[in-house]
C-alpha cells in the first residue's frame, strides 16, 4: 500500500466514524417540570436509613433530617425505548 492509499483510507474511515456517531436533534425536548413540596417534616435519620446506610453517609441515627412529600399523579411513565 502506498502513502496515497493510506491517506485516503484514513480520510474515509474518519468521515464514516464522524457520521456514525453524530448526535441527531430529531426528538422534541423534554418539558420542564417543577415540583413543590406539599408537606415537610423533621425525622431522625435512623427512621429513614438502615445502619449500613448511616455508616456510609456518616450520619448518627439521631441526626435530624428534613423529609418532604411531593404530590404525584401515581402514574409511571412507560419506556419509549421500544417505539
How would you sum up this structure, described in words?
The chain is an alpha+beta fold. It has a domain at 33-71. Helices cover 35% and strands 18% of the residues. It is built from three helices and two strands, in the order αβααβ. The chain has helices at residues 3-20, 45-48, 51-57, and strands at 37-44, 64-70. A two-stranded antiparallel ribbon has the order 1-2. The chain is elongated.
Task: Provide the fold topology.
Layout: H1 3-20, E1 37-44, H2 45-48, H3 51-57, E2 64-70
Antiparallel strand pairs: 1-2
Placed side by side, the strands forming the largest sheet appear as 1-2
Q: Taking Cα atoms only, what radius of gyration do you get, to the nearest Å? A: 26 Å
Low-confidence residue ranges: none
Mean pLDDT: 74
Oligomerization category of the chains in this entry? single chain
- Could you spell the SSE succession in H and E letters? HEHHE
Helix share bin: 25-40%
Helix count from the secondary structure assignment: 3
Largest sheet: 2 strands, antiparallel
Query: Which geometry do the CA atoms define?
Result: elongated
Distance between the termini: 46 Å
Structural class, from secondary structure content?
A: alpha+beta
Keywords: Signal
Signal peptide: 1-22
Amino acid at each position: 500500500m502506498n502513502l496515497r492509499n493510506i491517506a485516503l483510507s484514513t480520510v474515509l474511515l474518519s468521515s464514516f466514524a464522524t457520521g456514525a456517531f453524530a448526535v441527531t436533534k430529531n426528538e422534541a425536548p423534554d418539558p420542564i417540570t417543577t415540583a413543590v413540596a406539599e408537606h415537610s417534616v423533621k425525622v431522625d435519620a435512623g427512621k429513614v436509613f438502615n445502619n449500613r446506610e448511616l455508616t456510609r453517609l456518616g450520619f448518627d441515627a439521631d441526626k435530624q433530617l428534613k423529609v418532604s412529600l411531593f404530590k404525584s399523579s401515581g402514574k409511571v411513565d412507560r419506556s419509549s425505548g421500544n417505539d
